[in-house]
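Hi all, a correction to my earlier message: I attached the wrong file for Glycosyl transferase family 1. Here's the right sequence:
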Amino acid sequence: MHRVHVMKPDGGEFVHWAFQLNLMMLDACRMLADSGLRFDLIHAHDWLVCYAAKTLKNLFELPLVATIHATEHGRNQGIHTELQRYISSMEWKLTYEAQRVIVCSTYMQEEVERVFQLPHGKLEVIPNGVDPELLGQREQHIGAKHRYAGENERIVLFVGRLVREKGVHTLLEAVPSILADCPEAKVVIAGKGPAKEELEQLTDRLGIRGKVLFAGFVSDEERNRLYGMADVAVFPSLYEPFGIVALEAMAAGVPVVVADVGGLADVVQNGHNGLKMLPGDACSLSRQIRDLLANPQWAKRLAETALNEIGRYNWNRIAQQTIDAYKKVTRKTANLVEGVIS
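and the right structure:
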C-alpha cells in the first residue's frame, strides 16, 4: 500500500482536490514502475481516480477494471447541478474505459446498465463482505446498555450517516405509532451528518425527544456494543447500493428491518432472514418494527437464520470472485503474482 500526499489545490472546490489527487497518484505509480515493479492490471474505484486510471491504462498498456460503488444519479435521484453532471460524466468515462466493471449488487448492475448504457456482459456483481468475528457476541455487550436506554427499555437502533437518502426521517415519523404499541421502545441513532439539525427539529415537532437519542459518531467497538444491546436494527434507506451496515447488524445477530430498495433487497429476504418495509413509508416501517418487538422468539429465529447464512459474504470468497474477474481481463490461468495498481 502506498499513500500519496495531496498538495493544496489552487481552487477551493472539491473537484480541484480530486484533480490534485490524480496527479499525485500518477507520480507515485511512475516512481513504482521506474523502480522495476511491474503490474498486470489497474483496478480503479469510482470517479475520483478516473484521470489517473485512464492515463495509466494508456501509458503502460494495461487492462483496466473499475468498481462503481454508487452513482451520482442514484444518490441524487437524477442530475440537477453542474457539479453532479461533471461527476456523472467522470463515472461514465471510467466505465467506458474499463474492460470489466464491478458492482456490489444486482440493483447496482441494473442502475449502471440504465444510467451509463453499459452492456450486461461487461459487468460483474461482487458483494461487499463482513467478518462476524470482528463484531463479537451479543452477550458481551449487554452491560453497556445504561448509557443509551433504561434497563427495561427496548432499543431500536439505526447506524449510518445522517443524510436524507438514509431515511432517518422515516424512522422518526414511525416512532409515535411504535410507542403506542410498545411504550418501552427507545430509538438510538448512531452517526453524524448534515441532516442532524433537521432531524432533531423533526423529533421535537413529533414530541418524541425523550424516546430518541442521537448518539453521534461511534467507534467500531461502540457500534459493536450497540448491536449487542439492540432489539431491532433498522435501515430505512431511500437509496442504498449495498447496505454494509445492515449486513454487519445481521452478522452481529440482530433482527433487521430494511427498506426494499437497492442492495438491501439482495441481502434480506422478507420473513426469512429479516423484514422489509416499503421505502419512505413510516406506517410500513412501524408495522415491521412492532411485529418484531411483539414477537421476540420470531425475531430471534430471523436473526439466527441471517447469521447462519452470512457465509456467502465471506471475504475469502469475495477475494476469489475478484481474482476471477481479474483473470478475465488478463487471460491468465495462474494466480496473479506481479501486482495490481488499485
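Sorry for the mix-up. The CA atoms of residues 173 and 262 lie 22 Å apart.
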